[in-house]
């Protein structure tokens, strides 16, 4: 085959071919280019500058009234005279806001005028002559101009970063786990800063420029080359060099004549953290860019040593992919690195500012600081021509001297003068002094006091009140829509008009709320800036006086500060296990949690980057790249010390997904609490197996036992047998057995111990073995130790608890006789006085005991304690020092104590002795517990920055307010004269009712579940399982069984399966903050103290299975739909506890009612409206149907999602269901756009 080109054609023939392919070319030669003005293409940043100056010119024309001027610079506009241009120059000098002074600098005004002249040449085709330019410049320097406004000729300070600043930033980022969402974002952040400091390039050359937003133009893999060079000294380990070609040079983007290529080599050993080649290798292997290489060792230690220089081949499919890329939110709710979007300079600058503020730097670094650092390094090591070429400066222009050259020198001038040479240590000290001032503890956000001061601003208080007013108007509009009678002839028009009002009210509410949030955020930024300035101004005084930086009072037992993993080796914490042993429990041995290894990827990475043990550059580089690649993509969620997910973000106990997205809607369960619970169960199982394996076959030594000679080979059999003897000790004495005493053999005789509250502890301490079915395991959240009670006497755990009591609370156990100052410490009240705020982790300064603990993201470190139990000497120490590991359990426990004191008539004294003899009313006492002791008695938030606790409602009599939604269809009892009971009185009344019910309770031992109950009747009545079916129990007297088995008088059908205490399933779940369950979601609106959520879901409960939640629903839409169907069908709605009322009154008739037809006061049985076509399961409304199709398993037979609807009328009386309807196209599907009326029609 001949490899020559195509046949030669003439120019005219080539033009004809091009014109035939492009109609625009044909149109040019057919119609010509007459009367068309052409302007050259300009970059978007230049167009933005032109638009800016044209806007200023329009404003000037409106302000300048001496003569008529053209506001638009277009073809045909007259060129303005010189005196107008002078006036415009003065207008710019006075009006433009400056960055150095209040007004613009002299150079800024000159630049604006230059752009102004360019606009006349470009858009009006008018060339500004040199005489006009000269006259305007002369005017800017004249006395007439400078006497009115003298623009400054100074330039902004151009700070220069140092290598020490870069090292500090790298170390901080490697330790940080809060600023960056993914590991790649964290590593490439370091890479961008290192590359800028190495090359001196502008940010727009490496990442997407701020002037070219959404252009997606940045450094690509096609611009990077990996060059392998043979190493004659060590052929097995060749040299690696990286070439980087910069194409997006300022003013010459995508111009091949101005492309620039630099080469970067591996840094020496011990410098892996700042080595750009190592970071680039990590990014390359993450993106899988190489054609023939799959691991770092194939590059750094190839199987066959190279004999010639060559370039690693990069896949063609990734050459157009950006090296540094941004993040995007995936469909699974996780943040991942985008495959197509380049990292923008805006995003990088924001992250750089966050890092600098978190580090406590006096000034925030920007990317040009690295450029100036590189420029001065080039000045010291290159010729002037090389320096200008590296910085893309025009030759013979003093740009470097004006804007880049360092004005502060770090040379050892004293050494040069006196010793004739510089001392390297003194030079290094001078460089340290020249670096940016840094102080840890500099504020990055407003503290509790500052936030409270901001929220109390009158303007913001007024805006919050107006927002609340608009919100009430929205609720009133919704109520008006629901109250419309559907039977009226003009109901549709009325509802449409009311919906228009509702949209208007909602728009008002949303706009004001957005405005409030904008003002609030702006104020926060300004006040943080002022707070940082005040902090740094006070540094010299604090340093001289030896004072610490201002900070909240720490807790007596606070979380330990995080260590710098780049400067010291951090061993992963392994929780100790304290195991009791020996008859008297005097021997303790320490081990570590079996089969559990806490993973700290940052510590492992820093250990390799800064403390690699081998003196081998290749091995160090390979280990660093592999360590980068081995880090999980997202930071781990907070866990207890010594606990963490696995490398692939799985639970080490059960293997479930422990990513943040998987636990987003898991309620109170967090990743840390889930892993801790799984490890607790695993450790419990391990301990139990160890005890079972160590068991030695034993015989029963109970005097008179008929199995006295039997040998029990297994521990469960032996324990069960001994427990049967213990059961006899708990029975009441009889005539045959007048004394119940221990009959176990002891020292050649019998024990004969009669009085014992804990027989398990008796056998452990006296007879030396554990008769508990399960070996007890305890975890201390204060010192993070596991305590295994193998012996069963709990002496070790109790002694440990006594140690904590003596340290934390014993010093406050004496109640003073005089009053004590109980002013709240470290908390701030909101402007509405309905809550208090404090910083998590802060304490009371050591003057008072601290019970509130610190629970963040489900991790209690330290856990809270109950003040009532701590100082109750009637309890055992294990109950007094009970540690709570969740806010929910802690609040429920506190509520029990509050209930116990509600019916007390006299004053309430704080259970903490150090609070003195002061007595409070119930409201004052609750207020004291919350504001002073920080106990969440009335609930609060779980925020990690500022925690807020709700205060009790005022004790004044408040009449019951009408609910915010229409509840006319509910048969509520009429209000009585006691409807306006105060909070205290209503609480006392409820408490008395509970007391009366408890007084009638009969204690008993159930023979169905073999458990003891304080109220056996309540247990058997409420139970719907085997206990009710068997209905047999023993009466308990003084804790012992008495008499033969009894039967409880059960009346009525067994109770329905419930979620709580109701007789019907509480299937309506609020999706707001409260997460409460209701029989009907309309009950949620009855209580003004509930959250204001407008969304809920309907849960489905199947006997024997866990409840599953349905899709989120709108409360207003659901209630509106139920109300619209109430007039024609008075049946129960799902979860409703009462039937709907008929809105239309019944018309009297002489005819008798048919007995088969339900009357208006009868309840018609509910029938299913829909049926799944595959599984034939029935559903009562479209919400149940939607929930069924939403939560299908992958291999479910219902995956086709087809259903049938009940026919209201049918010619065939045997036909009940419609034809099959696809769910995907049905109007009942919430994903399809529809109005509620259309959905009802189809239903």
From TrEMBL:
Residues 1124-1168 are annotated as: Disordered. Pfam families: DUF3435. Residues 698-725, 864-897, 908-933, 1170-1190 form the C2H2-type domain. InterPro entries: DUF3435 (IPR021842), Znf_C2H2_type (IPR013087). Residues 1149-1158 have a biased composition (Acidic residues). Transmembrane segments: none annotated. This is C2H2-type domain-containing protein. The lineage of its organism: Eukaryota, Fungi, Dikarya, Basidiomycota, Agaricomycotina.
